Structure of histidine kinase:
Amino acid sequence: MTAAARREMPSVEGMIRLPPRASTVAVYAVACVVLEVAMLGWWAATRATVLFVALQLVLVVLVWLGLLVIRYRGFRHDYEQAIATNAILADRSRLADELHDALGHELSLIALKAGNLQVRTTGAVQEQAADIRRDVAKAVEQLHRALESAREDATSESIDAMIDRLTASGVSISQTGRRPPRLPTTVEHGLHQVLRETLTNALTHAPGRPVTIAYRTDPDVVAVEVRNPMPSDQIQRSRTSTSATGLDALGRRLALSGGRLDHMVEDGEFVVAARIPRHPTSTPADVGTRRRSPLRRTVASALVPTTVAVLVLIGFYAWSTHDDVVEDSVFARLRVGIPAPTAERLLPPRQAPVRLVPTHAHDPDWSCAYYTDGNFPLGLAVFEVCSDEGVVVRLTDLRKQSWL
């Protein structure tokens, strides 16, 4: 693939929106903290407990909605990145097919004509024709290698076979560490791509120099490091050469599955270090095809905590209204001055535990009980029944007075 073609291809970064930045989340968090402090100060000054609790619930809902919006933006970023990456890979594959059909055919014709010329001529012309044929064959091989990388096809040659072939051709390759004998196909393919790219670069830019391959295997990651000495005149050139471009492209492909690739010059050696996950999060072939929409992912992520919150609320309501509910008709039958035992026979055995509605002051000797009408979601106590010396002395419907 030519450098011009690479420049014409859209980049992933240019086709996606950025996720919410940390500064946005920080501003949102600070605003919520300031609002909470202001409400606490207001409650301390007014003691309007019911309204304060209602505002607290509103704040919790706002925080939850804000978190969902942030989560949705993150999911949308991932979704757009997946679609953009998939589109780029499709364009790359299409361009590879076009190059294969066009250049492959033309190069094959040139090789065929050079072969005919080699047969029909003698002397210097025959040698030049043979050189042309060899150069074309080499160009075809390089073209096929580039197109295979662009298409992301499955590996046809095993890693051991590739290393044995290079060793047999005179390349000095030493291996340390242990490479797992059995790896998932996608992991094996990723490792093969890393080794093929790095070994090709070593042969191109540092021919005749030894290459060291070091493996390290963790439960979740296969790590490989490839080192080869670099000639002094190649060190600076390697930073901007097509090999670095190819490694960058390979690094982007590994990143799609949760991997990483770094390359650098260290102590006169060119070092490539790659980490390939044993359980890839996705592969270039299926990126963007199996992802759910951002809205569905957001709803799915909110489903469990929302369900838990609803169940907790229902459980709390059932507890707060158990054996403490007084119907309006029952409360209407109560009268000031009736005996307290008579009132107790009409009232439930348990008092409402949630008492947020303010009441008027009463004599310390009075005994006051509080009941709810079953209001949702807290089951607030709204009926007050006070007695003194065995007689009901005050009946208060707290719903009829200010809750501030």
